Every structure is written in C-alpha cells, then in structure tokens.
Protein: Phosphoenolpyruvate carboxykinase [GTP]
Amino acid sequence: MTTTTIPGLEGQAPTDHTEMLAWIAEVAELTQPDRVVFADGSDAEWDRLTAEMVEAGTFVKLNEEKKPNSFLAQSDPKDVARVESRTFICSETAEGAGPTNNWRDPAEMRAQMTDLYRGCMRGRTMYVVPYCMGPLDAEDPKLGIELTDSAYVVVSMKIMTRMGSAALEKIGADGAYVKGLHSVGAPLAEGEKDVPWPCNEEKYITHFPEPREIWSFGSGYGGNALLGKKCFALRIASAMARDEGWMAEHMLILKLISPTDEVHYIAAAFPSACGKTNLAMIQPTIEGWRAEVVGDDIAWMRFGADGRLYAVNPEYGFFGVAPGTNYSSNPNAMKTLEPGNAIYTNVALTDDGDVWWEDLEGTPDHLIDWLGNDWTPTGDGKPGNAAHPNSRYCVPINQCPVTAPEFNSPEGVPISAILFGGRRADTVPLVSEAYSWNHGVYIGATLSSGQTAAAEGQVGAVRRDPMAMLPFVGYNVGEYFQHWVDMGARGGDKMPKIFLVNWFRKGADGRFLWPGFGENSRVLKWVIDRIEGRVEGDETAAGLTARAADIDMTGLDTAIEDVEAALAVDPEEWRRELPLITEWLEFCGPKVPAEVHEQFAALKERLG
Ligand code: GTP
Ligand code: SPV
Ligand code: MN
Structure:
C-alpha cells in the first residue's frame, strides 16, 4: 500500500499510516540506527529484549525463585532522576510556557536538537513503541508513538502503558497520536563496545505543546525517557486538557470503603516522593475500613454525564520509590512485587540475587550497592546508601492485591475529595478542609514542599509546588490556575471537596508528630465524615481544621498531644508565609486569576 522506505526496517511495517511511516523514515534517516524494529508488546519480545540486556550488562537477572522474571539495572550515576533544569516547554510564545517552565523558541530548539540527533542512534536499534495512555476502549483513547534507541525504555513502557500492537491498531491508518522521539544520545562507532547504561552529559527533555510533540535526548531514566509518563500524561496532556475542558493532574486515585460499604474515591496531589504511591496502596489500620488503588501518580479527570468529576489512571504500572518501602510501611507494594515481572533501577543487589534498599526488612551482611561497590551495614569506613534515594521499582498495576477493578474502566471513577499535600516540617496542619472550591484552588496554587531526590536540586529546600505540578504544567501557570477556577465554576456544587494534608509535620524534638502510612486512614475517615456532614471542624486561617477528638484514635498509641500539635494552626507561623506567598503570586504573573488573589486577601484578613 505505502511506498515509504524506512532505512533499517526489515520486512513490512505493521501499519499503513502513511504520515507515521514518513515520520519514522525521516527520524531514521536523521538518527541512522542500524535497525528499526516495531515493538509489539508481546511476552516473546520482553523475553528477547531482557535477555539481550542481560547479555549487554544493562540488566542483572534476579533470582528466579525470589523475584521471578525480574531484572535490576544500575544507571549511570549522573542519570538518576528527572532533570528539571533541562526540561523545556517550547510553546510558540514565551508567555505560553509561563514563568515556571524553561522556554526556548521552538524553531531554534528544533534546529539545535536536530543537530544532536544527527547520527545519534548509530550502532543501535531504533524501536517504534506504540502505546495508549488510559484504557484502549476509551471513547477518545490518547495514543502515542515513542521512537527510542533504548531497550530499557521499551520493556519499561510495556509495564507502564498499554503498549504494542493493540495501540498501533487503535491509531489505524490515519489516527492522531503524540509523536515522541527519544535517544540516549550515545552512538556506537563501528565495533565499539557498549556500556551498561549509555547516556549523554547533555540532556534535553523538550515539549512542543501546540503540535503535541516530545523530543528527549541524553537520559535513559524514568520521567526523562518513558515519554508516556510525565512528558505525555502530564505536560502535553495538561495542554490538551485545557483546550478540551478536562484536567491532567499529578494525583493518585484511591477507593475507600467504609465498614458500612459506603464507597468514596479520593484523588491526591503530593509532589514527587511525598507519599502518593504509599497513600494509593494504603492498608487502613482502622477496623472495618478497606482501600483499593486506581492509580498512584497521574489522574485524568473529566465531567461525567451526571456532572461529577470522574478520574482515570492513564498508566498501567507503578514506577515507585523503593527506599522506605517495606512490609510494614507499604505491604501492598511488597505484595505487588512478589509475582515478579518487575524492573528495578538503582537499588542494591544481594549475594543471592535479590534486591535490597534502605528500610527493607532484613539488612543483609553484604551487598553490591547501586554504584556497583561492596557494601556492608557498618560501611567499612565507606558510609553511603546501598540504594539511590530515587531508586525505583517498575511493576504492572494488575499484580497489586488491592487494585480496584475500576482501574481499567474508561469512564473512570467519581471523585469525592481532592487532597493537596507536601512535606512541611512546620506550619501546615495534619488536615483541614478548604472553605470553597476557589479556596481549594488557592491552597493548591500556593502548595509548598521540601525538595526530594526525585529531581536534581537541594534536597529539603522548601519550594512552592502548585498542585504538585510545578515541573509538569505544560503551559502558563496562571492560565493553569484559571483552568482550575473555570472547572470549578462548571462543576458547581458537584465538584469534589478540597483538603490540605501534611503527614510530615515535626515536633520540637525533630520527630514526626503523626505516624503516617496506614494510620493516614484515620485522616481519610475524617475527610469522609466531612463529606457526609458527620463532623464539624474548627475555623482557622488554614481552613476548617479537624478537632483531635474527631480523629479516630482507636488502637493508636500516638499521644493525643502529638495529634493536637499536628493539627494546630499557629497564626504566627502562617503570617511568616505571607511574604513568601506574595512573592510567589507575583512571580506567577499577570495571568493568576482574581479568584486566587481574593482568597489570598481573605487569608490575610483571617490572620488579622
Ligand atoms: P513519586 O513517585 O516520585 O511521584 O513519589 P510519591 O509521591 O508516590 O511518593 P512515595 O509514596 O513513593 O513516598 C516517598 C517517600 O515518602 C518514601 O520514602 C516513603 O516512605 C515516604 N512516605 C510516604 N508516606 C509517608 C507518611 O505517611 N509518613 C512519612 N513519614 N513518610 C511517608
Ligand atoms: C516523579 O518524579 O514524580 C515520578 C518519577 O513519578 S518520574 O517518572 O521519574 O517522573
Ligand atoms: Mn510522580
């Protein structure tokens, strides 16, 4: 049917999509891979690619008995997290990217990156990876093609997305799809031996929101390289969502079931490495309550026929932070890993071919750490983490014992509450409810958190992270706030209630005041009680804050004084935030909606 020749492709392309074939041919001509291979997403392909990566030293095959069909990769030590300083939104105008993103003129960026891409896949295979974000049978499935020279990306995309032939078929002969081009930027000369984790010192994670394109160069890691995740499902999708009247958010989605079988779905936006996966998989500690996971990182929300906001998880797997995960903090994550079929990155390797990371049960006497060095618990004078703080497991969502069947429903689930949260050692109470949708938008717009290892930067430094989307909003941040206000106006009283939570408040002695993890179910119960109108709260500057007496403490040995301290709103501390918020809203610029400024004025008035 088509006459397009793709250099390096053996046999017939499995699609008649003329425009797609022309694009693939053009990229292959530019990047000059030895081979072009269409990924079909099959188990046979997984077996072949993982075996090749074991052979190449990229993967270590883990002990088949302990971790069946699972692999460990250790990245280059300089390629361990998202690189926000190298992430660009190349909208047509600088204003379109707003003050929070790095912007470059799209034509200039294309010219510059085209030079980098020239010959960059020499000696490698270019994979054509078709994928779908969200269920394949959605009314308007969101499809993408990632061209990549990384087999690690191909197998990770099989876990994280609906990847392979079915997605290609959905695109059909002329369907729309998001173009993604990814290269690790490490061409091989004739006969040159490859390294286990090829990458380039120079990195670009670039988005062209208007034509819905992604160009990524130089990194093989996580959100930099698995283009369906942060690049498509948040940065590009947020721009689509603004245009189409829905929301693409950095949120977990969980299903909470009360002892009387009341069901509520809750979405929560916390910045990277601030507890989404843990809350999504929560094992409630209060009698009779159950929870199930719909998603752990990204939520796409749109209005249903009944006018409520429905959320879909566009992903198909978990890319979770390993350190801190264990059978007591997150038993459901541990059980998800038991059947195997997982990829681990930058954790430590035990002598019997298993994995280990900080806080996992049973510290071994000897390990190979994420850098490939011998490691012992005492450090032998060489202290350091066995696993990188941003080391990750990548595992299919359907292996989780508490996955809600609705995770695969194209209609999604109706959201009763949206939580915003972050890491704040002070000031922010354990839980409070926004006075209105717009107050909630204000709380989200000024959300703050201590920086984590999930991205480069000074760990611990408090920064504003609006709606936990600072690195992920694909357009002007003021317009993004406006979109939130507009969605609220559309949804009216059917919108979810908005809450602010903080699991990370510390006492004067530096201890966490609240035990967190499964005990957070006690806070979720209060949230449901509020939604159902069963409890009152205290009107404070922050919002309607829970009274300690209304938090179910049955079976919890945390001192009531600690809970009271965790819930307290100290006007003095809140006043200290005011100049920072003034500065932040000024920085966000003239597009910040009046409604947000009004809420800030109301806060100042509450503080006197
Ligand atoms: P990303 O995948 O980067 O978006 O992270 P995330 O938001 O899913 O964070 P995750 O659930 O992986 O948690 C990150 C870190 O926070 C882990 O080290 C957890 O152990 C820790 N953590 C999660 N929940 C709690 C909690 O309730 N209390 C405390 N103290 N720590 C928590
Ligand atoms: C995050 O940083 O928010 C993550 C990990 O979920 S990554 O896929 O690298 O973005
Ligand atoms: Mn995340």
Summary: The pocket of sulfopyruvate (ligand 2) is lined by residues 82, 222-223, 229-230, 272, 297, 319, 454 (CB under 6 Å).
